[in-house]
Amino acid sequence: MTRRTRILHFTHEDNLVQIFGRGGLVCDKQRRSSGIESRNVAYSDLKLERSQTIVEVPPGGTLDDYVPFYFGPKSPMMLTYMNGNVTGSLEDLNEIVYFVSSAQHVEASGLKFAFTDGHPVKQPRFFYNDLADLGEVDHALMWQKWWHDTDEYPDRKRRRQAEFLVWREMPLTEIDHLVTKSHPKRLEVESMLSNWDLDIPCRAWPSWYY
């Protein structure tokens, strides 16, 4: 049995209604063109850079043509969001929800994808679109709590921010489960899923959060 490579996308709970109603996660370019409002959990200037960064393997386009997933929890972006560097005030990670799938699931579904070995905007950066190249990703690093550069590993922070990129849209039918920080929040999300007749499991895994 092939070992699955887990991929994780996180968003604010305020975005769940439009995600559930639409039936999937959509890329930033499609969200803008459709006038979809969302609560941002990333730097606005970084989103601008992503809209100008070419994905150097098919299906091509720019980073904002893709729904981004990380290869592990506790990403640097989650930490900087929690610390108020995105919104200007400290944020509660209990309001953050993960959407979880796997690289193998995406490939089997026929969805187009690409992935990187590190931060997709910062140089050096390398793009791939063949799961045979997943070894270029430092998977052990993805599940460590801390990822700061060290003398022994000066490229650790960049590599920790590797992304799996799904072209245009990630349907909820391809999501394995959702994850919340607390059990009360899990119950809230499960109630929302039920209201939308969505049969997606939800789990509370506080270890995935700072």
Automatic annotation (TrEMBL):
Keyword Glycosyltransferase on entry: yes
InterPro entries, A to Z: DarT
Enzyme active site: 50 (proton acceptor), 163
Domain DarT: residue ranges: 5-210
Keyword Glycosyltransferase applies: yes
Residue numbers binding NAD(+): 9-11, 50
Molecular function in Gene Ontology: DNA binding; glycosyltransferase activity; nucleotidyltransferase activity
Keywords on record: DNA-binding, Glycosyltransferase, Nucleotidyltransferase, Toxin-antitoxin system, Transferase
Catalytic reactions on record: a thymidine in DNA + NAD(+) = an N-(ADP-alpha-D-ribosyl)-thymidine in DNA + nicotinamide + H(+)
Similarity-based family: Belongs to the DarT ADP-ribosyltransferase family.
Protein name: DUF4433 domain-containing protein
Organism whose genome encodes this protein: Cryptosporangium phraense
